[in-house]
Write a structure and sequence with these properties.
alpha/beta; 8-stranded mixed beta sheet; 21% helix
Length: 378
């Protein structure tokens, strides 16, 4: 898996840095996009990420620097698909699944419908219904009525309203995906509007087959190998029963990634993560501006490190920087600061731990290899 940071700035795009958008590219090439700030489709053209491979989009919250690029991207994906009517009839139109806070469906539908934008694929929007604790004081005028949406785009399939599940001590989570390969859930985090962080867990995969042992048991390559790796026992021609435990090595541990939206405190999500390979956390301002960061619902490098340590993360990747900080690739003048300052503060906060800390720049790619395979001991 690879994380492509398409935009790492906050508030608005500049000539030096785009705004929030992170692409998670899976080993099979499919892409999940997290947030889609203005200009995301331009940034995506600069990296080895095919927009036609995007099949899921996750929105953390409804501030403009996280969603204003979404209608344009959806239209561009359609225009570049190159699908012909015969292909659509044969295979059916592709489907893009979109997850986000309640209100995201109205935003997408309104933009695409008023602009009369046809799509060569279908899309479905799943909306996370916020809990009351997520609504901040002063935001009453902007709250969206759950029963208010009436319009629907011609390519839009019925979506769902995903409500929170609470454990015995009052921790909330929203279950989004649970299939044979992935478990994706969301937790709420503190910000000025209802905001979510996403926990992406790759499920453990079957271990490596011990082919030498299989051959010694008289089992030749064929469909039987797949049955054993799939957890089924088989019987040899000699009547000997062979179980998966006899010939399949330990499971290959899955990887866990945590991608957060804007937040001044991500602790309400911590119960969903025992440990993780990577956490993507904002650091809008440096530690000397902590009061300003908190005032606007944001974090500093030291706060991000504290959260990363709380969930036993191996790597912390910082993003969502104020545009006052230059990218590391730009040389700062006497009166300017770069994100090197934020990285230095994060490294200091992480001293004495094994946590790897790094500030990201636009177009930075983080490679997350699979965990090592283990062979059966013979």
């Amino acid at each position: 898996m690879k994380l492509h940071f398409l935009g790492t700035g906050s508030s608005y795009p500049t000539t030096r840095r785009g705004v929030s958008a992170t692409a998670l590219q899976h080993d099979d090439g499919c892409v999940w996009l997290f947030d889609c700030g203005e200009g995301t489709q331009i940034q995506a053209q600069k990296v080895a990420v095919s927009r036609q491979k995007i099949n899921k989009i996750f929105i953390t919250h409804l501030h403009g620097d996280h969603i204003f690029g979404l209608p344009g991207l959806l239209c561009t994906i359609s225009s570049q698909m190159g699908l012909v009517e015969e292909q659509v009839k044969k295979k059916g139109p592709p489907i893009i699944e979109i997850f986000g806070p309640f209100g995201i469906s109205r935003f997408i539908t309104t933009a695409l419908t008023l602009s009369q934008s046809p799509l060569l694929y279908q899309f479905r929007v799943h909306e996370l219904v916020p809990e009351e604790v997520q609504h901040t004081q002063g935001g009453e005028d902007f709250r969206v009525d759950i029963c208010s949406e009436t319009t629907c785009h011609p390519s839009q399939l019925p979506g769902t309203h995903i409500r929170a599940t609470s454990d015995t001590i009052g921790n909330f989570h929203w279950q989004l995906i649970d299939d044979e390969r992935w478990c994706v859930s969301a937790g709420w985090i503190h910000h000025r509007v209802p905001t979510f962080g996403y926990v992406i867990k790759e499920k453990d995969r079957p271990g490596t087959l011990d082919t030498n042992k299989l051959l010694s048991l008289g089992i030749k390559p064929g469909p039987v190998y797949g049955q054993l790796k799939g957890g089924k026992s088989v019987t040899t021609e000699n009547g000997e029963r062979v179980t998966p435990e006899m010939v399949v090595g330990p499971a290959i541990p899955g990887r866990t990634v945590v991608i957060l939206g804007d937040t001044s405190d991500a602790s309400p999500l911590a119960h969903l993560v025992e440990s993780c390979d990577v956490v993507v956390h904002e650091a809008t301002h440096d530690d000397t501006l902590k009061d300003k960061a908190l005032e606007f619902g944001h974090s500093t490098p030291s706060q991000a490190v504290h959260f990363a340590k709380t969930i036993s993360a191996k790597t912390l990747l910082l993003n969502h920087f104020s545009q006052r900080y230059l990218p590391t690739c730009k040389e700062a003048t006497k009166n300017e600061e770069s994100i090197a300052l934020l990285e230095e503060q994060a490294l200091t906060a992480a001293e004495g731990t094994t946590l790897h800390v790094q500030c990201t720049d636009d177009l930075f790619v983080y490679d997350m290899p699979s965990h090592p395979r283990h062979n059966v001991q013979t």
